[in-house]
Design goal:
Distance between the termini: 38 Å
CATH architecture: Alpha-Beta Complex
Strand order of the largest sheet: 4-1-8-7
Order of helices and strands: EEEEHEEEEEHH
Strand content: 25-35%
CATH superfamily: Nucleoside Triphosphate Pyrophosphohydrolase
Largest sheet: 4 strands, mixed
CATH topology: Nucleoside Triphosphate Pyrophosphohydrolase
Number of domains: 1
CATH class: Alpha Beta
Structural class: alpha+beta
Length: 162
């Protein structure tokens, strides 16, 4: 399959890839994961979204987490500055390529999602809009949900304790 690589396009062409980043927020005891209900897709997802021009994946994960939850994760990982020409960008826990089905006027395309695993205390969040649904879910809730992508259920099974 021929897939074009277009990091930042918000108007995908068929089969192109977009760079996205997300924050997989879990409680320190690994009993729960924070999920946001995606209105358009009608599924639960981790906070995240498209990288903007000039952002690293870590920068995008921090920004998206702050925008979608009000939780500031910027101090969790730091850039390692080697000299005036090199800095080491925090590495994601996993990079996932996910097929995004065609929807309305957007053709099928792919997201290359840099997923950062972040431990934070269970807390109320400040979503972008008051009507946004969110929940701290345990593994049983995630595995039994019919409003969840299978890949997120599998990821939760790798991360969360039963």
């Amino acid at each position: 399959m021929n897939r074009e690589f277009n990091l930042l396009s918000m108007n995908p062409r068929p089969n192109e890839r977009h760079a996205t980043a997300s924050a997989v927020l879990v409680t320190p005891d690994r009993s729960k994961m924070l999920l946001i209900f995606h209105k358009k897709l009608q599924v639960w997802l981790q906070p995240g979204g498209h990288q903007e021009w000039g952002e690293t994946a870590w920068d995008a994960a921090v920004r998206e987490c702050q925008e979608e939850t009000g939780i500031d994760i910027s101090g969790i990982y730091q850039y390692d500055i080697w000299d005036d020409t090199v800095r080491i960008v925090p590495s994601p826990f996993i990079i996932q390529e996910q097929r995004i089905p065609a929807h309305k006027d957007q053709p099928e395309h792919f997201h290359l999602d840099s997923m950062y695993l972040i431990e934070v205390s269970e807390q109320a969040i400040q979503p972008e809009t008051p009507e946004t649904r969110w929940a701290w879910m345990n593994l049983a809730e995630i595995e039994s949900s019919d409003q969840m992508f299978e890949n997120l259920q599998r990821l939760a099974g790798m991360i969360l304790l039963k």
